[in-house]
């Protein structure tokens, strides 16, 4: 029996984000039901946590080889398997590189402009800096998965 590959940091981040989203949403519904008012910050915080959840979940999916890919073409022509895996890595690296570059630029601009979030008045860069950081984590998981696939590990097929 093979050991299941994992991304513990991203799994922890995704779980924490989902739990907090659930708790603040539940609290907001209960408060709204009893008082006809709602917490103003919940939407802002929920959107931020949803971004964390999405990127962390995508990173876990990368590590476990659960993303959509060109598996049909790999099976159709086994000789093209290695070039296809490398091509997939190149395209994914390009996309993550763009997220890293533009997310990093955006976070730096938010820091320099000292802009604040509308709901809580927190610095916007606190929210945005997670884009490039999680893109780097996704790249690490992408490389791990790609190397395992090139080696022909038993985690090759989801």
Structure description:
The protein contains 6 helices and no strands. Helix content is 73%, strand content 0%. The protein has 158 residues and is mainly alpha-helical. Helix 2 (42-63) packs parallel to helix 6.
Number of helices: 6
Can you give the mean pLDDT? 90
- Total discrete domains: 1
What profile does the largest beta sheet have?
none
State the distance separating the first and last CA atoms.
15 Å
Shape, principal axes of CA atoms: elongated
* Strand portion: under 5%
Number-wise, the strands total 0
- Strand/helix succession: HHHHHH
| Structural class determined from secondary elements | mainly alpha
Name some characteristics of this structure.
73% helix, elongated, 6 helices, mainly alpha, 158 residues
How would the blueprint of this fold be written?
Blueprint: H1 8-35, H2 42-63, H3 71-76, H4 81-113, H5 125-128, H6 130-151
Helix pairs in contact: 1-2, 2-6, 4-6
Summarize the structure.
The protein has helices at residues 8-35, 42-63, 71-76, 81-113, 125-128, 130-151. The chain is mainly alpha-helical and 158 residues long. It has one domain (8-151).
């Amino acid at each position: 029996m093979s050991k299941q590959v994992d991304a513990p940091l991203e799994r922890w981040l995704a779980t924490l984000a989902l739990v907090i989203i659930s708790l603040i949403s539940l609290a907001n519904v209960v408060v709204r039901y009893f008082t006809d008012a709602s917490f103003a910050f919940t939407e802002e915080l929920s959107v931020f946590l949803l971004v964390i959840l999405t990127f962390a979940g995508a990173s876990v999916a990368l590590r476990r080889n659960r993303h959509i890919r060109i598996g049909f073409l790999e099976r159709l022509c086994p000789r093209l398997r290695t070039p296809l895996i490398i091509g997939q890595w190149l395209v994914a690296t390009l996309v993550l590189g763009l997220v890293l570059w533009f997310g990093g630029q955006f976070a730096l601009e938010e820091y320099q402009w000292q802009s604040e979030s509308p709901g809580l008045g927190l610095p916007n860069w606190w929210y945005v800096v997670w884009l490039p950081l999680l893109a780097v984590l996704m790249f690490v998981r992408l490389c791990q998965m790609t190397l395992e696939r090139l080696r022909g590990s038993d985690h090759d097929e989801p």
